[in-house]
Amino acid sequence: MDCLFCKIIAGEIPSKKVYEDEYCYAFEDIAPVAPVHILFVPKKHIKGACEINPENSQIVGKIYEAIAKVAAEKGLENGWRVVSNNGPDAGQTVFHLHFHLIGGRPLGVMVSEEK
Ligand code: 5GP
Ligand code: ZN
Predict the structure, then answer these.
(1) Computed over its alpha carbons, how large is the radius of gyration of the chain?
(2) Residue-wise pLDDT tens digits, 23-33
(3) Protein residue whose Cα sits closest to atom 4 of ligand 1
(4) Which ligand is nearest to the CA of 42?
(5) Hey, which of 39, 82, 97 would you mutate to test ligand 1's pocket, going by the most ligand atoms within 8 Å of its Cβ?
(6) Alpha helix (H) ranges present in 44-89?
(7) Catalytic residue at 98?
(8) Entry pTM
């Protein structure tokens, strides 16, 4: 399968690893929008949040556990945001489920007015 994040998880494309466990891999976003911008991806290929179902939904809880741990390690006690874009209207560009952990500065409004 021609998936960028599957290749990153497999080590075929280099990445700056932040965290890894049996369920998920986390690495620095190549184009950070804040001082901390880390992508958390399931090791299993899931196309996006639209494919979460009773068989695989436990991975979301495991990923959130990892996010909370890394956010604490990165010193983001003042706050942080998790974003998961699903589909073209939301701006999803890589079709392997991922959660952006963003923090390290005041983040402003959740959804921009851009159309
Ligand atoms: P999306 O737009 O799908 O929500 O998020 C995809 C993210 O992947 C973007 O923030 C983009 O900067 C990041 N990205 C795209 N290609 C690469 C890459 O090769 N390496 C890393 N580390 N991040 C990437
Ligand atoms: Zn994939």
Answers:
(1) 14
(2) 999 999 999 99
(3) 92
(4) 2
(5) 39
(6) 58-73
(7) yes
(8) 0.96
For residue 50, the CA-to-ligand 2 centroid distance in Å is 14
The 8 Å CB, 24+ separation contacts for 9-15 are 9/41, 9/43
Expressed in angstroms and rounded, the spacing between residue 106 Cα and the centre of ligand 2 is 31
pLDDT of residue 115: 63
What pLDDT does 111 receive? Answer: 74
Q: What is the pLDDT of residue 9?
A: 98
Q: Whose CA is nearest to atom 1 of ligand 1?
A: 92
Question: Count of residues for the chain?
Answer: 115
Average pLDDT, the chain: 96
Segment 99-105 shows an average pLDDT of: 98
What stretches of 1-115 adopt beta strand conformation (E)? 17-20, 24-28, 36-42, 80-83, 99-103
Question: Side by side, which strands form the sheet with 17-20?
Answer: 17-20, 24-28, 36-42, 99-103, 80-83
Q: How far apart are CA 38 and CA 17, in angstroms?
A: 9
> Is residue 27 within 8 Å of residue 38, measured between CB atoms?
yes
